[in-house]
Amino acid sequence: MAFVQFIYNFLWGDLITISLPHFHVGLSLLVLILIPAGIFFTIRTRFLPIRHFKDMIQITMEKKDQEAHAISGLEGLIVSTATRVGMGNLVGVVAAISAGGAGAVFWMWLTAIVGSSTAFVEATLAQLYHERDPLYGGYRGGPAYYIHAFFTRKTKKKKSIIAIVFAFSGLLCWFGISQVVGNSVSSAFENAFHIPPIYTTVILVALAACIVLRKNMTVKVLDVIVPIMACFYFGLTIYVMVRNITSLPSVIHEIFVQAFGLKQMVAGGFGAVLMNGVKRGLFSNEAGSGSAPCASATSHVSHPVKSGMLQSLSVFIDTIVICTCTAMIMLTAPHAVINGLQGMDLLQSAMSYHFGQVGVIFIAIVLWLFSFSTFIGILYYARSNIAYIFGDRWMPQTIYKVLALSQLFIGGLATYTFVWDLGDIGIGLMTIFNMIVLIPMSKEAIASLKEYEEQTNKERVPSMQEVFENESV
User: Fold this and answer.
1) pLDDT tens digits, residue range 412-466?
2) In a 10 Å sphere around its CB, with 0-12 CB exposed, 13-18 middle and 19+ buried, how is residue 43 labelled?
3) Which of 25, 191, 306, 391 is 20 to 30 A (C-alpha) from 346?
């Protein structure tokens, strides 16, 4: 336990502290890695999330290529969004606002823009280095595969130690998350409906087993769940915003004032505002951790860059849309209602204010949708890592699924922070090993982006004004 706690603090704790006259900022190892890398990728892609946002939307509307067993780019987006949109969008945002105030929301937004570029690079590389999947059909890939390519180009070895460690870290992370999901769902239903955890857990595990133990059921189920849960939660937020439309200007004003406020600096709270927004934004969108590329590698698109753009859009959906929904639900509630509250008590009080006692039921349903889709999604991710380590065999695939289902069951009945910490350590190690190669290999993603832009510019039909100007010249 002491060793696990040491590794956890090394990855997630404040590695260095920057002290300024009126405040201090604690920086964890992962923040020190992800933020500079995200800024680097944003500059290298020439602010791709902003320049190509219209293209991202258009790509989601493209028809699916009829290749057998391959999923479309849109389905890859849905799978990655299913895992990104989870507890972090509720508990993470609540924690950020509880500790850093409304200003933390702004820094979450900014982190999403930076993270979008990182997501683009890792997803594009996953597409460039994906391979055929003889077990499930279609394709497989992810960081383990492009890490393998990076370290074995000269040696031509069958396996890379770094790629194996990354794959194991991913399996460790998703093993821990399985228990978190079970606990979150059973607790939410117990609070909302007074259902004993054992009943909720048995039904949850049975439903999950019916999906994950069938060969290609995961994507079909997520195609239904993810749009429903996103639209449901977004609809709740729109209702809240319309009902409280007169207070929206003051909420937006509060977010920006507290993000840069002199009051926070003088009071020494600016560091908390900044770092809580940044950390929660990174934890929520998972950009750079190497999880989502496992989904983008399985999709079949006409150009690798399209998969990268879709994953960039997924970060936007996760943080700019869903996290903002949670923030607006809380911040539009009167200060007297949420003053002094923290964690889920804060969110539940805000929901009770907006919807009465029905608000608690809404939160339970949203938690179920978010958590259940996360569990299904992470087992979809695990396929590629298991195949890289153990080869193309059904036995390791099935054993891992059964172990994950057992953790889902255990988590529904009791919480073991040891397993939760293992999950956090797993995602931290994934991020480190992923980023080791992501920066040097980013030139390949940038080259692919340039190629894509050249192709689209050639295909684009010039407007009448452009034709007229060319003739004039």
Assistant:
1) 887 666 666 777 788 888 889 999 999 999 999 999 999 998 888 765 544 444 4
2) exposed
3) 25
Q: What is the CATH T-level fold of the domain 8-446, as seen in this structure?
A: Amino acid/polyamine transporter I (1.20.1740)
**Which residues, 6 or more positions from 288, have their beta carbon under 8 angstroms from its beta carbon?**
33, 34, 37, 38, 115, 118, 119, 122, 282, 431, 434, 435, 438
149 touches 127 (CB < 8 A):
no
- Please state the domain extents for the chain: 8-446
Sort strands 139-140 and 131-132 into parallel, antiparallel or unpaired. Answer: antiparallel
Distances (CA, A) of 159 to 146, 164, 194: 12, 7, 50
Q: Which is nearest to 218 in space by CA: 397, 366, 392?
A: 397
Q: How far is residue 53's CA from residue 56's CA, in Å, rounded to a whole number? A: 5
Number of other CB atoms surrounding residue 457 within 10 Å: 8
- Express each pLDDT in 23-44 by its tens digit: 566 677 877 888 888 899 999 9
Q: By the 8 A CB rule, do 448 and 31 touch?
A: no
**DSSP track, 426-462:** HHHHHHHHHHHHHHHHHHHHHHHHHHHHHHHHHHSPP
Give the model's confidence band at 320: pLDDT under 50 very low, under 70 low, under 90 confident, else very high.
confident
Query: Three-state SS for 294?
Result: helix
Share of the chain above pLDDT 70, in %: 81
140: helix, strand or coil: strand
Is the CB of residue 256 less than 8 Å from the CB of residue 75? no
Three-state DSSP state, 91: helix
Q: What are the pLDDT digits (tens) for 48-64?
A: 888 888 888 888 777 66
Q: Residue 238: enclosing H or E segment and its boundaries? A: helix 218-243
Please provide the distance, in angstroms rounded to a whole number, between the alpha carbons at the two ends of the chain: 73
Distance between CA atoms of 126 and 129, rounded to whole angstroms?
Answer: 5
Residue located via tokens 């133990």: 213
Helix (H) or strand (E) holding 19: strand 14-19
- 56 close to 308: Cβ distance less than 8 angstroms: no
* Strand, coil or helix: 157: coil
Q: What is the pLDDT of residues 208-247, one digit of tens each?
A: 888 888 877 777 777 777 777 777 778 888 888 888 888 8
Bridge partners, residue 18, by sequence: 25
